[in-house]
Write a structure and sequence with these properties.
- The chain is 37% helix and 3% strand.
- The chain has helices spanning 35-42, 65-75, 91-101, 107-123; strands spanning 54-55, 58-59.
- The chain has a two-stranded antiparallel sheet with strand order 1-2.
- The longest helix is centred in the last third of the chain and has 17 residues, at 107-123.
- It is globular and about 55 Å long.
- The mean pLDDT is 84.
């Protein structure tokens, strides 16, 4: 029989981060410094075991999972280290997906999402 002694790891301690609307932030640091933990908390992918996360004046731990999902979709953009693209979809379809998931139900809204995704790909030099 193997016995493992587990000890608590405090990935983050005494962190205060304030990001303004429209501001872009890059998190840098050595491996194991808590970058992923910080981003998972800020992105509401994980909940803090201590302290609190406040996004747009809302206390994240008080929100339901659906409310966190909605808030994430409305307020946070990610650039992942490894691409999280759906391989059977085009670049434009991958860019459009978050817009479509927000409940586009008519052709006008779909066309607007297609136009917006095309504009974003062009701005990034990725238009086909």
């Amino acid at each position: 029989m193997v016995h493992l002694a587990l000890s608590a790891v405090h990935a983050l301690h005494d962190i205060h981060l304030h990001v303004m609307a429209g501001e872009m932030v890059a998190i840098c640091g050595p491996s194991g410094s808590g970058k992923t933990s910080l981003l998972n908390l800020a992105g509401m992918l994980e909940l803090a075991t201590e302290g609190s996360v406040v996004i747009t004046h809302l206390l994240v731990e008080k929100l339901s999972e659906q409310a966190r999902t909605d808030l994430r979709a409305e307020t946070i953009g990610y650039v992942f280290q490894s691409f999280k693209l759906i391989p059977v979809m085009t670049a434009q379809e991958n860019v459009m997906l978050p817009l479509l998931l927000r409940g586009i139900r008519d052709k006008a809204a779909f066309d607007a999402a297609r136009l917006r995704s095309s504009e974003m790909l062009s701005r990034l030099g990725l238009a086909t």
